[in-house]
TrEMBL record:
The gene is dnaN. Residues 1-119 form the DNA polymerase III beta sliding clamp N-terminal domain. Forms a ring-shaped head-to-tail homodimer around DNA. Belongs to the beta sliding clamp family. It holds the Pfam family DNA_pol3_beta_2. PANTHER family: BETA SLIDING CLAMP (PTHR30478:SF0), DNA POLYMERASE III SUBUNIT BETA (PTHR30478). The lineage of its organism: Bacteria, Pseudomonadati, Verrucomicrobiota, Verrucomicrobiia, Verrucomicrobiales. It comes from Luteolibacter ambystomatis. This is Beta sliding clamp. Transmembrane segments: none annotated.
Amino acid sequence: MKFRISKEAFLDGLQKVQHVVSTRTTLPILSNVLLVASNGRLQFTTTDLDVGITGSVEAQIEREGATTLPAKRLVNIVRELPASEVEVSVDAKNVASIQSGPSFFKIIGLSQDEFPPLPDFGGAKEFRIPQIVLRDGLRKTSYAISTDETRYVLNGIFTSFREGKLTLVATDGRRLAMIENDLEFPASHETDVIIPTKAVQELQRLLGEAGDVLVRLSDSQISFTVGESLLVSKLIEGNYPNYRQVIPGDSTERVPLNREAMLETVRRVSLLSSDKSNSVKLVFGENQIEVTANSPDVGEARESMDVAYTGKAMQIAFNPDFLKAPLQNLDAETVYLDLIDEMSPGVIRIDGSFLYVLMPMRVTGG
C-alpha cells in the first residue's frame, strides 16, 4: 500500500483514535492502529476489545491496501515531521517507510489479519440524537461516574430510553447527576443500558454541536456514528440501582444562587479544607450564606455571599469537590439549591430537567 497525505490530516486522524489504545496489553496487535487505504481515504481503527473507534481522512491513494502500525509511536513520529506532506509506503511484510521532507522513518507493523474486527450491528435498535443534546447531557452528568471498580455497574452512565425520553444518570453513591431530554423513538425500542466510562470519554471527544449521532444497540454492544467516525463499545452488564429512590421529596427551602459566584466562593474557601476534614460548611442566615472551611491542622477560611434567603437559620456541610463539579459543568446563570434539613441530601437544580443530589457530610462543631 502507498499513499500521500498532509501531516495535519494524518495527525488529526490518528489523534481521534489513539486514546482507545491500551498501554498495558498482552496482545501486541492491540497497541497498533489499523490503517486502510482505499477510495481516496485513509481509515484509522483502534480497539482494546471493549471499546473500538474508526475514523477516516482524505489522502492520495497510490496503491490500496491495509496494515497495522504501533499507534503511539506513529503519532509521535507524525507530530514531529518537518514537512507538511507525508509519503507512506508499506511492503508485503508490513514494514512502513515514512518520508517527509528530509526525514525518513521505517517502522515494523503487523498484518491486518491479526486485528480483531469491530462487532456487527445488523438488526440493532437505532436511535437518532442531536449531537448537542447528547454532548450537553454527558457534560452535565459524567463527572459523577464512580471510579470504584468494586461497584462496576456504577462505572458508566445509565442511559434510559423510555416514554419518549432519553435519561442519563451517573452516581458514585455519594452524589448523583441526572438529566432528561425528550426524544422520539418507537415504543418497541424502550430499553436501559449502562455505557462504560471509557466509551463516554471517547464519545465526548467526538461530539460536536451540529447534526445527529446515530446510536445502534444490540444485546451487549452499543455504537455511535458521528460524521466520519464510528465508536463501538461493550455495555456494562448488571442492574443499575434504583436511582429515583435517592432523589429527596419536597424541599423546605429553595435558595437561588449565582452559579459563577458560588463556584468562586467555594473554590477559594476550600483552599483551607484538608484531606482529613474535606468539607465546606454552608451557614444560612437572613439573606446571606457564609461558606466556611475549618481544619485544626491547617487553619480556617470564611466568605459570605448575599442571597435571597428568608428561611430558618441552618447549616449543612458538603464535600467541596462534589459541590464544585456541577457548578463547573452547568452553563445556567442561576442554580437552585433545594434543602430539607441539615442531614438530608441537598439538590442542585436549574430551569430545566437537570438535577444533582449531594449527600451532606457530618461535621463536628466549630
